[in-house]
Amino acid sequence: MAIAVNLYYTGTNGNAGKFAQEMTLSGTVAKIRAEEGNLRYEYFFPMDDPETVLLIDAWRDQAALDVHHASPMMGQIAALREKYNLHMKVERFISDEDGIPDRDKQFIRK
Predict the structure, then answer these.
(1) Is there a contact between 85 and 43 (Cβ–Cβ < 8 Å)?
(2) N or C: which end of the chain has fewer CB within 10 A?
């Protein structure tokens, strides 16, 4: 059962983008991606909101996410969020064990 978390970081004066850039350039993103159980860690920039960055963070299971949350990296991330005065909205999703239903597959173009 994979877990995906969408984190919307919002700030002012481009701070959300600066946060994502510092996370990447500091090597923190690469370290998170290398953690056991990490499936995805990617930033996206909404076209209609230049002050928000979306992070899609996916993990194999709750145990892997718990280990990540207990790591020293979380303190570094929290400090960067404070540095850039970011606020967050969080959405959490759990994967469907059976995958995409056949009735929905007709709408997917590959």
Answers:
(1) no
(2) C
CA dist 12 and 17 (Å) reads 10
Q: How do residues 34-79 score in pLDDT, each as one tens digit?
A: 999 999 999 999 999 999 999 999 999 999 999 999 999 999 999 9
Dihedral sign (CA 29, 32, 37, 43): negative
User: pTM for the whole thing?
Assistant: 0.89
Residue 29 has pLDDT above 80, yes or no: yes
- What secondary structure does DSSP assign to 13-70, as a single string? TTHHHHHHHHHHHTTHHHHHHHSTTEEEEEEE--TT-TTEEEEEEEESSHHHHHHHHT
As given in the structure block, the two tokens for residue 28 are 């923190």
| Beta bridge partners of residue 92, listed in sequence order | 5
